[in-house]
Amino acid sequence: MTVGSTTEGLRVVVVDDHPVFRAGLRYLLEELDVTVVAEAQDGAAGVEAVLEHRPDVVLMDLQMPGVGGIDATRQLLARWPEAKVLVLTMVDDDQAIFAAIRAGALGYLLKGAGQEEVGRALVAVAAGEGVYGPTVARRLRSFFGAGPTPSPALPFPSLSEREREVLDLIASGASNGAISQRLFLSEKTVRNYVSSIFAKLDVENRSEAIVRAREAGLGQPQA
């Protein structure tokens, strides 16, 4: 289709692992006369759906089981460079934002964005323009406008204390099951932490995360 100034006629694929959110998003998009041609609940299925339907825009979550949104974006653009990805996520830290941009996403919105904001972002991304929600834009301006800052006392300042604790155990070689027992968490919760850590560190797998963590001094034997 020829991209115009409105959302009418736009075709999108939604990649998000939460059915309730997908249902709400579908309703919002229908109100904008946007057609959802396919939905996927993880990054791997999302890549295949996009390649099959060739939509105008891909709405991509970041934190999903299996292949996350950053890896999916990278894989998708390697196979179809014309793909236009708009990230729609709860993750609002600098590491994830820059990782998504490096992976090739054209836009980054936080979940909770209003209908008009989503509509404007869809039109812009479909036209090949970069677009970021107000909160993300402020973070980008703050980052690029700031002068040199001292090195943080803790490694990976974008990680929460619990995420850093999980990463430390990953770096020590612990499995998700072992981490679950050690921290008294369910394995599903541990998997969610691991997915978030991978997104924030911009790594594709556990091995890369271990290398990054050990380079920062994590995973070392306790004295």
Please tell me about this protein's structure.
The protein is built from ten helices and six strands, in the order E-H-E-H-E-H-E-H-E-H-E-H-H-H-H-H. By secondary structure, it is α/β, with parallel strands linked by helices. It has two domains: 11-144, Rossmann fold (3-Layer(aba) Sandwich); 161-215, Winged helix-like DNA-binding domain superfamily/Winged helix DNA-binding domain (Arc Repressor Mutant, subunit A), CATH 1.10.10.10. Strands 2-1-3-4-5-6 form a six-stranded parallel sheet, with helices on both faces. Helix 2 (43-53) runs parallel beside helix 3 and helix 7 (161-171) crosses helix 9.
Please sum up the structure shown.
By secondary structure, the protein is an alpha/beta fold. It has helices at residues 19-31, 43-53, 69-79, 94-103, 115-126, 134-145, 161-171, 176-183, 187-201, 206-215, and strands at residues 11-15, 35-40, 57-60, 85-89, 107-110, 131-132.
Distance between the termini: 63 Å
What is the strand arrangement across the widest sheet?
2-1-3-4-5-6
CATH architecture annotation name of the largest domain: 3-Layer(aba) Sandwich
CATH class of the largest domain equals: Alpha Beta
Helix content: 40-55%
| Whole-number tally of structural domains | 2
SSE sequence, one letter per element: EHEHEHEHEHEHHHHH
Instruction: Name the structural class.
Output: alpha/beta
Identify low-pLDDT runs: none
CATH topology of the largest domain: Rossmann fold
Counting DSSP H or I runs of 4 or more residues, the number of helices is 10
- CA radius of gyration is 18 Å
Average of per-residue pLDDT values: 86
Q: What's the number of extended β-strand segments?
A: 6
**Biggest beta sheet summary:** 6 strands, parallel
Shape: globular
CATH superfamily of the largest domain: Response regulator
Strand content: 5-15%
